[in-house]
Amino acid sequence: MELSADYLREKLQRDLEAEHVEVEDTTPNRCASSFRVLVVSAKFEGKPLLQRHRLVNTCLAEELQHIHAFEQKTLTPEQWTREQQK
Amino acid sequence: MSGSLGRVAVALLRWGRGAGSGGLQGPGVRTAGSGGGGGGGSAEQLDALVKKDKVVVFLKGTPEKPQCGFSNAVVQILRLHGVRDYAAYNVLDDPQLRQGIKDYSNWPTIPQVFLNGEFVGGCDILLQMHQNGDLVEELRKLGIRSALLDEKKDQDSK
Hints:
The complex is a heterodimer of chains A (86) and B (158). Chain A is an alpha+beta fold and 86 residues long. Chain A has four helices and three strands, in the order H-E-E-H-H-E-H. Chain A has helices spanning 5-15, 49-59, 61-64, 77-85, and strands at residues 18-25, 34-41, 69-75. The termini of chain A are far apart. In chain B, the strands form two sheets. In chain B, strands 1-5-2-6-7 form a five-stranded mixed beta sheet, with helices on both faces. Chain B: InterPro entries: Glutaredoxin, GRX_PICOT-like, Monothiol_GRX-rel, Thioredoxin-like_sf. Chain B: This is Glutaredoxin-related protein 5, mitochondrial.
């Protein structure tokens, strides 16, 4: 299975209709395949953190079986705008 | 954000030094074994396990010796809030528990945190709850007063 940052980014963008996705391959810091993702999607609106993370986990269910460490941040477009203004 | 993250990092360092001398474990922290009937992987067993204590965590390693950075972060966040009385299960001791808890909570990674029998999330979620104040509130609902409240009061009164 191909597990590149680009692959994960495209999949998240497509499946979660994300307007912004950042994927960082953190593997060099760790002992096995690791990623950190930021997903900005309107699909997260009105959803608590747990449900947002579950959406991401579901989207990458197959890939996560081969990923050792996975960090995620899930924002709505509104939150993302505010974050950028900081 | 960077402030509270920094605090966790500081705690990590402190812990790193302390762990070497051994026996820094808080009096209330129980490193709960996964045994007691062998193979704690079934949904019924796990259901009972997560409901047995108000705060339950599943870690790689133990609170005094976490074997993974994310598990360590969970331990340190609980420590910052002065949560001493929690049950910790080491999934590295029990492959059945390791897979079973993932299936039970439908969550692909370890660590996992349960409050009052309810799945809360992993390290990222606990960290964000710590940062946005939700954790203080959730602990309060369980009758646990976060130590950070007292710390804040001290600062305010100065």
